[in-house]
Amino acid sequence: MGVLEDLYQEALLLRYKSPKRRGTLPDATHTSGGKNPSCGDRVELFLKVNGDRIEAARFTGEGCAVSQASADLLAEAVEGKTIPEALELVRAFKAMVVEGKPPAPALGDLQILAGVAKLPSRVKCATLAWNALESALLGER
Amino acid sequence: MDPQVLRKDFPIFEAHPELVFLDSAASSQKPRAVLEALTRFYATRYANVHRGGYALSEAATEAYEDARKTLARFLGARDPREVVFVRNATEGVNLLAHALGGRVDPGDTILVTEMEHHANLVPWQQLAAHTGAQLKAVPVTEEGRLDLEAFDRLLAEGPKIVAFSHMSNVLGTVNPVAELAKKARAAGAVVVVDGAQAAPHLPLNVAELGADFYVTSGHKMLGPTGASALWGRLELWQELPPFLTGGGMIEEVTLEESRFAEPPARFEAGTPPFAEAVALAEAARYLENAGREAVFAHDQALVRRALAKLKEVPGLKLLGPEGPDRGGVVSFYFPGLHAHDLATFLAERGIAVRSGHHCAQPLHRKLGAPATTRASFYLYNTEDDVDRLAEALIEARRFFDAWIA
Ligand SMILES: Cc1ncc(COP(=O)(O)O)c(C=O)c1O
User: Which residues are near ligand 1 (CB < 6 Å)?
Assistant: First the structure.
């Protein structure tokens, strides 16, 4: 049972039910979407980038707690970061949920998703928004 | 039929004694007899069919054609030539959508239903798009049955093709196929029935059912992946052009043109999945021996038990009708909790269920449930499996209390 309790904590619930960054950005400079066609999970990211810095980030979408909370946490975490810093965060996040490495301190609140690493079938839920972020920043729009 | 005894025929339950496998609607487990038929064929009778002038190739060809006869009997076909082997149900529908394409003109209607699996929807959508025809769908009622009045109204528009499932993979609804087929044929339509969920579970007689084509899925009926029987009326097969072309399906080829073989060969281009077809025939025999009425009665008993128990789980919403037209599938959700999160909880309890839209997005949209979790039953499932599901759902209700709306 440990795995379930690890993941489905109050913090994840709050993120899922009361997201902080859900919405669109009318003045977005970068948008990118991701889908898991097999299950219907969907995320769209909106970024406002000024020079090298992400000034604002929002997301919309629907799906499971893991995919949606992950997108919300991502949007909050990348605000104020430079593009290289955001890409570094993508690497740190994937190291945690894909490879099961101990969470880097820089991940902050994102550590509530660490439990996903023990649920292989849910990794794609957690990484959905992160893949979208990568393609937005690396220009595959 | 005793599932406890039958279970011993399925090696997967030896490898995973604690597994509660409730995902047979996606693909069934395989009895030892089927696995052995496959390896025995490869080990002792294997050579390409219809080609070599040597004994081994003849033996393989004979086994393949025997498999066709067995599947014809299993489906209730009058003539083995009515059975075409394809890879899966999806390929079956695509074959039909292409072969029937020439009969569809701009402005024609193709009629499907809202409860279709994408396999029996997207190929018709594509055909409509390519021909300028219109695709219409028979609505599903709140209880999860087809709206038969709407069906009659839509039939009056004179659709060229009417395609619907025998049993829904989400709702478990068993549609009144004979009635629908009779009306649709009387209205001049070609009737295609998607029997992917029905053929594994229900007694079947396609000759009496009255449809023109009946699609099945071998891997859902105890067979290996890669071979499925597609039934059609011989006179229709004889009129239709091929889908895939190449070797194996021709009578005569010159550099300029080709004459196609008679059915079923016309529809089996390239090396067919003959070893898999031989194993599929073994699966058909296994189901015949278990008793097809008995299999369906068992599914229905389990789904009745499941519905009774799951209704007691506070807040759990159940899809699909109740009654004799309900097969062994139950889809459910807790409002506010996503289907994946619930499926993960069940998976941690050793219960294998599927979550998502089950390749029926329009149906989920219609029912206002973006995703559901689905349990499906088969001959190797026991009352204990159902009880463990029900208990786990009660625990899930407690565990996710703050989540559920
Ligand atoms: C009703 C129905 N039709 C078609 C299919 C597709 O079957 P296959 O995997 O054999 O293509 C399925 C299986 O998921 C199904 O449930």
Answer: B 88-90, 117, 119-120, 165, 169, 194, 196-197, 217, 228, 359
How many domains are contained in chain A? 1
Of B134, B119, B143, the closest CA to residue B367 belongs to: B143
By most ligand atoms within 8 Å of CB, the mutation choice from B87, B359, B364 for ligand 1 is B359
| pLDDT given at position B285 | 98
**CATH number of the domain to which A66 belongs:** 3.90.1010.10
Q: How many residues does chain A have?
A: 141
Cβ of A40 within 8 Å of Cβ of B361? The answer is yes
Closest residue of chain B to A14, computed from CA coordinates: B403
Specify the 3-state DSSP secondary structure of B394: helix
Contact B139, B145 (CB under 8 A): no
Q: Which residues contact B31 (CB under 8 A, 6 or more apart)?
A: B6, B9, B10, B222, B283, B286
Q: How many A from CA of B88 to the centre of ligand 1?
A: 8
- CA proximity to A125, closest of A44, A59, A45, A43: A43
User: What does the alpha-carbon distance between residue B354 and residue B389 come to, in Å, rounded to a whole number?
Assistant: 13
Q: Spell out the domains of chain B, with CATH numbers in brackets.
A: 3-30+291-399 (3.90.1150.10), 34-288 (3.40.640.10)
> Could you report the per-residue pLDDT of B160-203, keeping only the tens digit for each?
999 999 999 999 999 999 999 999 999 999 999 999 999 999 99
- The residue of chain B nearest to residue A68, with distances taken between CA atoms, is B338
**Residue B352 near chain A (CB below 8 Å):** no
DSSP B338: -
Give dist(CA B152, CA B148) in Å, integer. Answer: 6
- Domain that residue A68 falls in: 2-138
Contacting residues of A for B336, CB less than 8 Å apart:
17
Closest residue by Cα to residue B187 from B106, B111, B97: B111
Residue of B19, B187, B244, B359 marked catalytic: B359
Measuring from atom 15 of ligand 1, which residue has the nearest CA? B196
Q: Is B359 a catalytic residue?
A: yes
Q: ipTM value, please give it.
A: 0.88
Could you tell me which of B351, B357, B338 has the C-alpha nearest to residue B386? B351
* Residue-wise pLDDT tens digits, B260-271: 999 999 999 999
Query: What is the pTM for the complete model shown?
Result: 0.93
Q: Which residue's CA is the nearest one to ligand 1's atom 16?
A: B169
- B357 interface with A at CB cutoff 8 Å: yes
- Other Cβ atoms closer than 10 A to B261: 18
Cβ proximity of B246 and B255 under 8 Å: no
Angle at CA A46, nearest 5°, toward A44 and A49? Answer: 150
